[in-house]
Amino acid sequence: MTIVVLTAVPPGLRGHLTRWLLEISPGVFVGYVSARVRQHMWERVVEFVEDGRALLVYAVSGEQRLAFEVHGHDWTPVDYDGVMLMRRQTAPDYVPAPSAPMRQQRAGSTASDETVWKRRDARKKFRKK
What is the CATH number of the domain that holds 28? Predict the structure, then answer.
């Protein structure tokens, strides 16, 4: 069994995967393919994913009976005593805001306490008009 989960990828890549897998939900593909086809398919996904994210889960022989491949994702697979686990990024995904000279600071707080979400400016609803 092979499962591919795609997020924010071009529509052509989703169409390409429907050659081998069934799309059971938007961006979620499942099916049975050989190891050779799975490897070729994953190479194509990594090539065309651009700024999106991709996750591949497939069956293998072993204690867990599955393995992971990740591209462009914050979570990474880690081998812990023979068991594959997904490790989240421990560092926060934000950066300190630049301190404004005219802004009044609260007692006991510093400019480094304030944070701004890194991706906020890229989102449409937060763009300046």
Answer: 3.30.70.240
Residue 73 class from Cβ within 10 Å (0-12 exposed, 13-18 middle, 19+ buried)?
A: middle
pLDDT tens-digit series, residues 14-28: 999 999 999 999 999
d(CA 76, CA 80): 12
Domain extent for 29: 2-87
Domain contains 128: no
pTM of the entire predicted model? 0.66
**How far is Cα 78 from Cα 54, in angstroms, rounded to an integer?**
17
Does 98 lie in the same domain as 54? Answer: no
